[in-house]
């Protein structure tokens, strides 16, 4: 039911990992008995996911970071490796999010928020009505500075959203377990990054005319810092805008500077080349194609919010059509194309010399009379050197009638 990257480990190794995880989990449950209802909150991380962590040089107890993309309907899991950098572990498909691309503004607008959020352990909810959940922390300092209202924006189970990230019970169970074990390993709070789309140069050029573009440029700066360094960006809010504190390591800041310059140059190049500008609209959010395909096969996703709206999800409205510039060909190239020697033998004219290969006369004959400017046939006719045209026989026959 989820995306699992392939791994080179054998079944025996996976079995050992699964057994170890099960023993650890059973030991935890024995030490602290819980009700059957709460047992789901103590379910182990799947063995295949543990294998992926091991493959990437990290563990279940290492710090975690989540990244959400609304347009792509995906949530990524990142874990800190032994070298101190976060590495991508896996990607989960979102079953349902609601609203449009752009930030959440007020209670009841059905908007799934965008921004940088902090999730401490107290925001984990094992008693959720939607299987398991955690509160992403909306509104944060930025949202409050904008006057935004609302609360209780969750990553939860089922497939119904009114501003939340609905993942289905099975998927949120694994996400919850990953976060739980990171807290058990000593992480005080994890960062939850929520973006409208993947923050690459192509998308920034594509959405350059959107009313939210100034806000998205702030998000891109934070995204670029993470992409360049693999370290969690230090997020602050200054003058009601996202701001990012520099890393203490100057080498990391150099990576950020290079990345930012490269991305800005790429965006400018795409715009200069005539990239189209669009706005993407939704009736009410979207769903990952993975879940749509399952539903089409008759697999029940449970309670899906506003399923009729999914038919109108992700409609692109072209604001500026793409305008591709013609390819510029050097004169040295096109002049050879036009030269007589470059023409096939069947279309060459014997003795023809192109004008651009003919040396012009140093002194052209002077025009002294008006008649010299007349076309040759007209001049000959006026001089009596051309016979008058003979009308066709049919014309003479008609004239005699």
TrEMBL record:
Annotated Pfam families: YkuD
Q: Name its pathway.
A: Cell wall biogenesis; peptidoglycan biosynthesis
Q: Which UniProt keywords apply?
A: Cell shape, Cell wall biogenesis/degradation, Peptidoglycan synthesis, Transferase
Keyword Transferase carried by entry = yes
Q: In the UniProt entry, which residues are flagged as the active site?
A: 156, 164
Q: Does the keyword Transmembrane apply?
A: no
InterPro entries (alphabetical): LD_TPept_cat_dom, Transpep_catalytic_dom
Q: Which CDD domains match?
A: YkuD_like
Going by the entry's taxonomy, the superkingdom of the source organism is recorded as Bacteria
Similarity remark: Belongs to the YkuD family.
Under PANTHER family, the record lists: L,D-TRANSPEPTIDASE YAFK-RELATED, LD-TRANSPEPTIDASE
Name of the protein: L,D-transpeptidase family protein
């Amino acid at each position: 039911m989820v995306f699992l990257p392939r791994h080179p480990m054998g079944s025996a190794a996976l079995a050992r990992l699964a057994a170890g995880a099960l023993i650890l989990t059973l030991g935890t449950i024995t030490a602290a008995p819980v009700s059957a209802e709460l047992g789901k909150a103590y379910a182990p991380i799947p063995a295949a996911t543990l294998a992926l962590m091991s493959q990437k040089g990290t563990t279940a107890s290492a710090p975690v970071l989540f990244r959400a993309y609304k347009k792509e309907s995906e949530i990524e899991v990142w874990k800190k490796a032994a070298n101190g950098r976060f590495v991508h572990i896996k990607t989960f498909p979102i079953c349902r999010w609601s609203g449009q691309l752009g930030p959440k503004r007020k209670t009841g607008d059905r908007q799934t928020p965008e921004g940088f959020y902090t999730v401490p352990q107290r925001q984990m909810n094992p008693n959720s009505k939607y299987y398991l959940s955690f509160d992403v922390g909306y509104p944060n300092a930025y949202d409050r500075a904008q006057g935004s209202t609302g609360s209780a924006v969750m990553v939860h189970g089922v497939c119904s959203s009114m501003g939340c990230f609905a993942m289905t019970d099975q998927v949120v169970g694994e996400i919850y377990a990953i976060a739980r074990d990171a807290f058990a390993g000593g992480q005080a709070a994890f960062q939850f990054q929520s973006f409208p789309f993947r923050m690459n140069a192509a998308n920034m050029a594509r959405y350059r005319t959107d009313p939210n573009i100034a806000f998205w440029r702030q998000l891109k700066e934070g995204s670029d810092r993470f992409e360049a360094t693999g370290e969690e960006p230090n997020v602050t809010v200054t003058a009601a805008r996202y701001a990012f504190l520099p890393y203490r390591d100057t080498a990391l800041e150099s990576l950020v500077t290079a990345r930012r310059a490269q991305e800005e140059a790429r965006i400018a190049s795409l715009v200069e080349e005539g990239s189209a500008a669009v706005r993407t609209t939704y009736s009410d959010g979207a769903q990952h194609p993975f879940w749509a395909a399952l539903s089409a096969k008759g697999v029940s996703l449970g309670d899906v919010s506003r399923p009729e709206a999914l038919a109108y999800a992700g409609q692109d409205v072209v604001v500026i059509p793409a305008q591709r510039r013609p390819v510029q060909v050097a004169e040295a190239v096109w002049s050879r194309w036009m030269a007589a020697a470059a023409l096939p033998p069947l279309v060459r004219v014997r003795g023809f010399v192109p004008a651009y290969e003919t040396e012009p006369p140093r002194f052209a004959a002077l025009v002294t009379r008006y008649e010299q400017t007349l076309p040759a046939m007209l001049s000959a006719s006026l001089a009596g050197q051309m016979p008058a045209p003979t009308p066709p026989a049919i014309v003479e026959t008609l004239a005699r009638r």
